[in-house]
Design goal:
Elements lengths: L9 H11 L2 E4 L4 H4 L5 H4 L21 H10 L4 E7 L26 H12 L2 E6 L8 H4 L1 H18 L12 H5 L1
Parallel strand pairs: 1-2, 2-3
């Protein structure tokens, strides 16, 4: 049965999330291959050309959505939040043609967000998606702000449609359009 989307205010969404209580936040991406945290590209001054090449060896062999959800449920978590795209710009979901810098086009050849979404439903645990507004990989992030904002909105729309710390404080993030 498809979930019905109802209009909620920001306060309603925050209250709903707060009532969930204990949850698990899962960081996973290309940085998982390096084992130095999700900010490794910036903090370790990784080469902007070499870092994206990690997707060639990103097999996601250790990503087991069922085990993640089962562990979370056993621990008493009421939800799991997965980083669907972190600041490195690599998406764990099929970006549906927006780019090929995603898990289905990597060595994994899998849509990890689809697996996660299905596992949450099987285990009866709430699912949340983290999607960054930053993007160190996408060229428009530093060169064409309006184009980047459209790409960001399109990316979030793909995620919402298919799966159910601010930076650049001086920029208009066009939040109303993004959250709409």
């Amino acid at each position: 049965m498809a979930a019905t989307i109802t209009a909620m205010t920001a306060d309603d969404r925050i209250a709903q999330f707060t009532r969930r209580g204990f949850g698990l936040f899962v960081h996973y991406g290309l940085y998982s291959l390096i084992g130095q945290g999700e900010w490794v590209w910036r903090h370790r001054r990784r080469d902007d050309h070499d870092y994206p090449q990690l997707m060639r060896s990103f097999s996601a062999d250790d990503f087991d959505a069922d085990a993640i959800c089962a562990t979370a449920a056993d621990a008493g978590c009421r939800y799991v939040c997965l980083t669907t795209r972190h600041h490195e710009g690599f998406s764990l979901y099929d970006t549906r043609g927006l780019n090929e810098y995603d898990a289905p086009h990597s060595a994994a050849k899998r849509d990890l967000v689809a697996e996660f979404s299905e596992a949450c439903e099987r285990h009866g645990i709430g699912k949340y998606f983290y999607h960054t507004t930053l993007d160190w990989w996408h060229p428009d992030f530093d060169s064409d702000w309006d184009a980047y904002q459209q790409y960001l909105r399109d990316s979030v729309a793909v995620l919402c449609r298919n799966y159910g710390t601010w930076s650049k404080r001086d920029r208009d993030w066009q939040e109303d359009a993004l959250y709409t």
